[in-house]
Amino acid sequence: HTRGARLATPPTPQLTKAHWPVTLLGPGRRIGLWVQGCTIRCRGCVSQDTWPRDAASAIPVRDVLAWCRRVAPDGPDGITISGGEPFEQPEALFALLAGLRAWRDAKALDFDILCYSGYPLQTLERKHAKLLALLDVVIPEPYVDALPLGNVWRGSANQPLVPLSERGRVRYAAFVDAPVAADGKRMQAAIEGGRVWLIGIPDRGDMAAVESLCASRGLALTQVSWRR
User: Fold this and answer.
1) Tens digit of each residue's pLDDT (9 = 90 or more) over 24-49
2) 57-85: string of b/e by CB count within 10 Å (b at 16+)?
3) Sequence-distant (≥ 6) Cβ neighbours of residue 63 within 8 angstroms
4) Cα angle at 78 between 75 and 84, to 5 degrees?
5) Distance of alpha carbon 164 from its chain centroid, rounded?
């Protein structure tokens, strides 16, 4: 008798965007990866376009890693993963993190890996300890629109910056409690595929101010991510 076995399909993350270099979501020049899909849907979220899952945005991990190696062959200072909600794709996130760490180890690079999540830290520790073990830093907790802008790289004051590795503890020691002014209040803009992407952590009212300024110069913004 013979028996067959179906090969497991590699997990494939749904990504809405990848960008290099990102300079506002962690220290240094970073690779930014944004996943597609989030069921938390925080009130006031500026990335509401990343809420729905979208099978058309699926991309093999090997292709994501190949792109990372191509745009930053000498290694970035860090990699920031946001979304969307990365931890709602746990198998794909695990494969991605394992691949990034393998690249870092094989080339003796020194980049850190930071991940945002809208889930409470206790939830991540209980449900996703294996994923946290592959990260250097996590910024957890839901965005709360009623709270003021948080410390550097955080959208609201309830969100901590939590180092998870020795690399994370050394590199982020100065930023755990750093005020937002430590990195300045800036947004990074990129134009790709007929769309304008704004990268960074806006303050309350900033996106309305952007719309108003554009309108005053005859430019109307349509299908904005911060309003459905």
Assistant:
1) 899 999 999 999 999 999 998 888 88
2) beeebeebbebbeeebeebbbbbbbbbbb
3) none
4) 125
5) 16
Buried b (16+ CB within 10 A) or exposed e, 105-114: eeeeeebbbb
Q: Is the dihedral of CA 46, 48, 53, 56 positive or negative?
A: negative
Contacts by 99-107, CB closer than 8 A, 24 or more apart: 99/61, 99/62, 99/64, 99/65, 100/65, 100/68, 101/134, 103/65, 103/68, 103/69, 104/75, 107/75
d(CA 173, CA 187): 24
- 């830290």: which residue's tokens? 121
Do residues 78 and 135 lie in contact, with contact meaning Cβ atoms separated by under 8 Å? no
The position carrying tokens 């003796």 is 108
Q: How many residues does the chain have?
A: 228
What pLDDT, in 10s, does the model give residues 172-212?
Answer: 999 999 988 755 567 777 777 777 777 777 777 776 777 77
Q: Give the 3-state secondary structure of 71-102.
A: HCCCCCCEEEEECCCHHHCHHHHHHHHHHHHH
172-179 LR contacts (CB < 8 Å, sep 24+):
172/27, 172/112, 172/136, 172/137, 175/27, 175/151, 176/151, 177/151, 178/151, 178/152, 179/151, 179/152
pTM above 0.85, yes or no: yes
What is the Cα 191 distance to its own chain's centre?
Answer: 19
Query: What does the alpha-carbon distance between residue 79 and residue 33 come to, in Å, rounded to a whole number?
Result: 8
Structure tokens at 91: 């198998």
